[in-house]
Fold this protein.
Amino acid sequence: MALGQRLKACRKAKGLTQHELANILGLNRSTYAKYETGDNEPDNDTLQKLADFFDVQVDYLFGRTDDPTPPYQLPNSEKPLMVSEKKYDYRDDPRVHGELKELLDIIVRLPEEQQKRIIEQTLVFAAGLQAKNRSSEKE
């Protein structure tokens, strides 16, 4: 199976459109579509992001193996908690890295009440930043 076919199968298994996946990866939809059609190939960084997002080996995407299991597979007891109907997991999102990932890793370990408090405070802070940005754009 070619790279494009594997990408399409993995995307459909996650229940995503090309547009949704391209947004998650920070790509144009047409760029991602060319990966699936074989008209273009992702660079190494994008290829790794795709493998990480789909939780598969790069070799699986290339069709060199039929075993998608990544070598770092976590035991079931260590799997992160999935939220929402789409089963979003921030650890699969290539946009979440560095300090943001560290922060989220800390927050998910806190008691629920503390999580809610942090989220409320963060939303207030973010709303303030958005208002400030809007006012500075008008100037």
